[in-house]
Design a protein that fits this description.
single chain; about 160 residues; mainly beta; six-stranded mixed sheet; five-stranded antiparallel sheet; 1 helix; about 5% helix; globular
C-alpha cells in the first residue's frame, strides 16, 4: 500500500493505534546519527530527508523478504501492536488524519528502506531542501524481541 504522508519536522511515525510518544520520542543521539529511526514501545518514528510530503509504502507479510537492491539505507526494529491496528502519520497530523492499517495483534519486525525516488505523486513543496526518497516499511511477525539493527548504512546529511 502506498501512502502520501506529511513528514513535518523531517519525520513520520508508525505506531499501535493506542500508542502515544511521550518525552523525546526515542530520538537518542544514535537514533538521529545512525539508525534514522526512533524506537519506543509500540511506536517507531522514521527520519526523513525532507520536511515535506513523502511517499511511504507499507506491506505486511508472514516472513522477511529479500533486501531491496536499490535501498540506500536499511534499518530494522521491533514494534509491538497489541491493538491490532497501526497508524501512519506525520507529527502535525490531527487525530483522524492518520492512515490506519489493520494487522493481527502481536510483535512485528519492521524493516525501513530508504529508496531514492523522484517527487511524490502529490503537490510537494519545492522550497524544502533534501533529496526525495520512497520510504518502504515491511512488517512481519516476530517471535522474540531483537535490538535495532542497521542492515545497510547509507550516507546521511539529515
Amino acid at each position: 500500500m502506498r501512502f502520501i504522508v506529511h513528514a513535518d519536522q523531517r519525520q513520520f511515525s508508525l505506531r499501535d493505534k493506542g500508542a502515544w510518544r511521550p518525552g523525546d520520542g526515542g530520538w537518542t543521539e544514535e537514533a538521529v546519527a545512525v539508525h534514522r529511526l526512533a524506537v519506543e514501545p509500540s511506536s517507531l518514528s522514521v527520519a526523513t530527508a525532507r520536511s515535506d510530503l513523502v511517499e511511504v509504502d507499507v506491506s505486511v507479510s508472514g516472513a522477511a523478504s529479500p533486501l531491496l537492491t536499490g535501498a540506500e539505507h536499511v534499518v530494522e526494529a521491533d514494534l509491538a501492536v497489541p491493538g491490532g491496528e497501526v497508524t501512519l502519520a506525520g507529527p502535525a497530523d490531527y487525530p483522524g488524519q492518520e492512515h490506519r492499517i489493520a494487522v493481527s495483534p502481536g510483535r512485528y519486525r519492521v524493516r525501513v528502506s530508504y529508496v531514492e525516488s523522484g517527487p511524490p505523486d502529490a503537490e510537494w513543496h519545492e522550497h524544502e531542501f533534501g533529496p526525495h526518497y520512497r520510504y518502504v516499511l515491511e512488517l512481519w511477525p516476530a517471535s522474540h524481541a531483537a535490538p535495532v539493527e542497521v542492515v545497510r548504512l547509507g550516507e546521511w546529511d539529515g
